[in-house]
Task: inverse folding
C-alpha cells in the first residue's frame, strides 16, 4: 500500500549486535541509558549506555513457558500466580510453576539492571515492572520511537 512507509531502513542505533530485529531497535531508539524489556511472546532484554546498544538476550515469554509446562504434564497446566512471593519457597505445585517462571526472569534482570532504569513494554511488561523499584512501564515505547524517528527524519521518510 503506497499509504504506508517501511520505517525499518531509517532506524539506526550504535551496536555491533548481529541480527537485531527492528522491534528491538525501535524499542532502544529513544532510550539513551537503561535496560529495555519487551515482555511479550518472547522476552527481549537490551542494554543501552550513552546511546550505545551494548547487547541483550532473549527468553521465552511467560505464556510460552506456561505452555511448555503444560506439555510436560496436565498437572502443570496452571495460570500464573501474579501474587507469588519470589522470596519464599513455594509449598504447592501451582506456585512452584509460577516461581519457576518468574524468579529466574527477575533474578537475571535484577543482576543486570542494578541501579539503572528498567523500561518495560509488551503484554507482560506491566506485571514484570512491579518487581523493580527503577521500573518505567510504557506500553507505547515502540510507537513513541516511531514517532520520534518520523519527526527527526521527516524529510528523508516522506
Result:
Amino acid at each position: 500500500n503506497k499509504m504506508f512507509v517501511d520505517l525499518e531502513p531509517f532506524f539506526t542505533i550504535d551496536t555491533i549486535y548481529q541480527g537485531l530485529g527492528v522491534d528491538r531497535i525501535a524499542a532502544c531508539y529513544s532510550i539513551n541509558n537503561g535496560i529495555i524489556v519487551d515482555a511479550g511472546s518472547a522476552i527481549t532484554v537490551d542494554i543501552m549506555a550513552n546511546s550505545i546498544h551494548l547487547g541483550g538476550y532473549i527468553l521465552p515469554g511467560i505464556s510460552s513457558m506456561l505452555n511448555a509446562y503444560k506439555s510436560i504434564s496436565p498437572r502443570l497446566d496452571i495460570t500464573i500466580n501474579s501474587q507469588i512471593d519470589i522470596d519464599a519457597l513455594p509449598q504447592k505445585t501451582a506456585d512452584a510453576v509460577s516461581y519457576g517462571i518468574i524468579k529466574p526472569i527477575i533474578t537475571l534482570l535484577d543482576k543486570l539492571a542494578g541501579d539503572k532504569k528498567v523500561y518495560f513494554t509488551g503484554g507482560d511488561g506491566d506485571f514484570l515492572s512491579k518487581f523493580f523499584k527503577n521500573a518505567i512501564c510504557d506500553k507505547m515505547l515502540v510507537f513513541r520511537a516511531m514517532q520520534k524517528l518520523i519527526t527527526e527524519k521527516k524529510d528523508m521518510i516522506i
